[in-house]
Design brief:
heterodimer; A: alpha/beta; Rossmann fold; two-stranded antiparallel ribbon; 6 helices; B: alpha/beta; 8 helices; 24% helix; binds flavin-adenine dinucleotide; binds adenosine monophosphate
Chain lengths: 249, 309
């Protein structure tokens, strides 16, 4: 069993981002970047499956500029076996990412592909579903539990009404939700070891895949800021304000 | 050209977010059709036909759609997509699951979670947990869109009488199958459409203490929400989570109790009309967005609040 995990390099979740002065994009200069948190969960899950002797190889793939090697190395430090950077400096939207991942899947023939449910920068929540469609494979999105069997996998999904379990024939695509697991921290010796693990680089431009964006960003603005209101000193005052000032109760 | 709205329902009732999605569709050109795919879902088909603004209901009744599995929904919608310039569905876990699959099969982009419509090809959507708003223009021939319900007024269901057209079921995708579900049963209004939401965070300490919030929700006919930390700790089920990666709510009144106010949480509730925060730490960031802040121990003040309501 071979597992492929897709990891995206994104602005760290603790950073409060700013829109740049000409309203063309979010200002990414000198901002801390990290592995997308959902992808860290995806890597962790793949490692746990391998630790349970249900998989023998974990490949991590990232799409983007050369800096993404760091993101791949961080996944290798957690325990993935080898990395692949599909390098490009162009903007890649989810459909393009899915097409590049399809190319990788066809080359590597994994039995399972795990992605994050959502990248916390574009908040698209699309790529896994798109890859699954392009491969004509089943999909298990927003997974909070993965139960892997020989030719099948049961996926428990977080849905608006609670939880749902579906059964998928392998190969399949799964996307992670927050409750799937709690990722480990990379230990220093493993970070050192990760530097020696194989990391291949391929140029997206050499694959012939059409990655032209379908959406053009016209502008990026900051949302209206909410200003802090008042502090009330007692429950009585709170109820009075809600009744007579805000008129919401 | 015309717009297709894909209805969300549980085979007996339309989900409220469907009406907000029709509300968004009225900002586009052409007729609005609505697709109801389900099993034994006649009451849903009937109520869809009553929505103001709908000219046609496409109805398909088959066991392929009982649980709106993404694979089957995609096989169905790609068959009829060519008739439409826009296809819209609510940005709920159901829509987020099947819509990108349809997009990839049609080789078009999806525009996720829109909060505004500038023109027939230009839309506004939040990115970076709502800390930036992107205005994007689509060059695809079919615009596939998921709609953030709280950003659009719901269409009304009066006595419209749209034509109902039965369509053929699509193929069944054999490699995936529904097994079971565990639904959170509640008599309360649905979180994303409730007028009042009262949410608890890690400060609640455990699941039993959520009874303190229940008592207030009872008085205000509110829904109960939670922060990620409260869900991760197992105090409440996952579907209570409000935030960037949970549910988006915008009630008239949002009460945050024992929640610090991380950006990921604010992303899900900062469009609420009135925000109340109860937290014992006066520096908690939640106070920066609260209209009324009460610095206090929640265990002291919640019983008193229940009493006074
Ligand atoms: C990828 C990702 C996605 C995320 N998505 C979401 C999301 O969708 N929704 C979400 O909510 N979070 C999300 N988070 C988590 C978010 O960053 C915060 O960790 C989380 O919101 C914190 O929850 P909290 O406020 O309940 O807990 P804490 O930050 O621990 O705050 C608890 C608060 O309770 C107060 N308190 C404690 N005891 C009492 C008392 N007795 N009386 C009064 N006040 C008290 C404390 O002063 C404190 O302010 C996400 C994080 C990541 C990385
Ligand atoms: N550039 C990328 N490189 C690798 N994986 C990606 C990339 N973009 C998206 N993904 C994967 O797709 C998931 C969902 O992203 P999105 O559809 O953009 O919200 C992420 O969590 C990643 O697993």
């Amino acid at each position: 069993m071979k597992i492929l995990v897709a990891v995206k390099r994104v602005v760290d979740y603790n950073v409060k981002i700013r829109v740049n002065a000409d309203n063309s994009a979010v200002d990414l200069a000198n901002v801390k970047m990290s592995i997308n948190p959902f992808d860290e969960i995806a890597v962790e899950e793949a490692i746990r499956i391998k630790e349970a002797n249900k998989a023998d190889e974990i490949i991590v793939v990232s799409i983007g500029p050369k800096e993404n090697q760091e993101t791949i190395r961080s996944a290798l430090a957690l325990g993935a076996d080898r990395g692949l950077l599909m390098q490009t400096d162009e903007e890649t939207q989810p459909l393009a990412v899915a097409k590049i991942l399809k190319y990788v899947v066809e080359a590597e023939s994994p039995d399972l592909v795990i992605l994050g449910k959502q990248a916390i920068d574009d908040d698209s929540n699309q790529t896994g579903q798109m890859l699954s469609a392009l491969m004509n494979w089943p999909q298990g999105t927003f997974a909070s539990k993965i139960d892997l069997m020989d030719n099948e996998v049961n996926v428990t999904r977080e849905i608006d009404g609670g939880l749902e379990t579906i059964r998928l024939k392998l190969p399949a695509v799964i996307t992670t939700d927050l409750r799937l697991n709690e990722p480990r921290y990379a230990k220093l010796p493993n970070i050192m070891k990760a530097k020696k693990k194989p990391l291949d680089i391929q140029q997206v431009s050499e694959t012939g895949i059409d990655i032209k964006p379908r959406l053009t960003t016209i502008k990026v603005t900051e949302p209206a800021q909410r200003s802090a209101g008042i502090k009330v000193s007692s429950v009585t005052e709170l109820v009075e304000k809600l009744r007579n000032e805000a008129k919401v109760i | 050209m015309n717009t297709l709205v894909i209805a969300e329902h549980d085979n007996s009732q339309l989900k409220p977010a469907t009406l907000n999605t029709v509300g968004a569709a009225t900002k586009l050109d052409g007729e609005i059709h609505i697709l109801v795919a389900g099993e034994n879902c006649d009451t849903v088909i009937q109520s869809a036909a009553k929505i103001t603004g709908i000219t046609k209901v496409l109805a398909v009744d088959s066991e392929n759609y009982t649980h709106a599995l993404a694979e089957n929904m995609a096989l169905l919608v790609t068959e009829i997509a060519d008739n439409y310039s826009h296809i819209l569905t609510p940005a709920t876990t159901t829509g987020k699951n099947f819509m990108p699959r349809i997009a990839a099969l049609l080789d078009v982009a999806q525009i996720s979670d829109i909060t505004g419509i500038e023109s027939i090809d230009t839309f506004i959507r939040p990115v970076y947990a709502g800390n930036a708003l992107a205005t994007v223009k689509s060059s695809d021939s079919i615009k596939l869109i998921t709609v953030r319900g709280t950003a659009f007024e719901p269409a009304i269901t009066d006595n419209n009488n749209a034509e109902i057209q039965t369509i053929e079921s699509g193929d069944n995708f054999a490699q995936s199958q529904f097994e079971s579900h565990q639904l959170t049963l509640s008599e309360r209004p649905e979180l994303t459409s409730a007028q009042v939401v009262i949410s608890g965070g890690r400060g609640m300490g455990n699941g039993e203490n959520f009874a303190l919030l229940e008592a207030i929700a009872d008085k205000l006919n509110g829904a109960i929400g939670a922060s990620r930390a409260a869900v991760d700790a197992g105090y409440v089920p996952n579907d209570y989570q409000v935030g960037q990666t949970g549910k988006i709510v915008a009630p008239d009144l949002y009460i945050a109790v024992g929640i610090s106010g991380a950006i990921q949480h604010l992303a899900g509730m900062k469009e609420s009309k009135v925000i109340v925060a109860i937290n014992k730490d006066e520096d908690a960031p939640i106070f920066q967005v609260a209209d009324y802040g009460l610095v206090a121990d929640l265990f002291d003040v919640l019983p008193e609040l229940t009493e006074l309501l």
